[in-house]
Design a protein that fits this description.
Elements (H helix, E strand, L loop, with lengths): L1 H7 L3 E9 L2 E14 H12 L4 E3 L5 E7 L7 H7 L4 E4 L4 H9 L3 E4 L2 H4 L2 H14 L13
Parallel strand pairs: 4-5, 5-6
Antiparallel strand pairs: 1-2, 2-4, 3-6
């Protein structure tokens, strides 16, 4: 999900970001041509088909970005500590709102379910391209 979305967004210098039970789960990287916060939110909305909730707490121009799909709101702290301009996850948390402002980082939230559909869709596309398998993704968004 995370690496796939980073590549779709044309990020470069990708590396592991964030951990869950000792395993890397996310990705961080840079935009060779910085985006405005609105341009970034629009690009994510276009790809996921989901509205993006934006907490503008930092730079309006985004060069560095971290992504952890699903429910990783508290990793906004890790993103800020690593000097990223913005961070995306699925589910927002009330407590993270002011944490992001205090740490001067932009936090974006695009839904737990929708942020976790990227990898499945990329896998389906690869199976079709490489093996000629017919695939169908059944979209059942929760709105969360």
């Amino acid at each position: 999900n995370n690496w796939g979305l980073a590549r779709i967004l044309a990020m470069t210098d990708l590396e592991d970001f964030g951990q869950w039970q000792g395993m890397p789960i996310g990705v961080k990287g840079i935009f060779p041509n910085p985006l405005s916060l609105r341009e970034l939110a629009d690009a994510i909305e276009k790809e996921l088909g989901e509205s993006v909730l934006v907490h503008a707490g930092g730079n309006i121009e985004i060069s560095s970005f971290g992504i952890i799909s699903g429910g990783a709101a508290w990793d906004v702290v890790t993103a800020a500590e690593q000097g990223l301009d913005a961070f995306l996850t699925g589910e927002p948390k009330h407590e993270v709102f002011y944490e992001a402002f205090e740490r001067k980082i932009n936090a974006l939230f695009a839904g737990h379910y929708m942020t976790e559909t990227v990898g499945v869709n990329l896998l389906a596309k690869k199976l079709t391209q490489e093996f000629g398998l017919a695939t169908e993704f059944i979209l059942l968004p929760t709105g969360l």
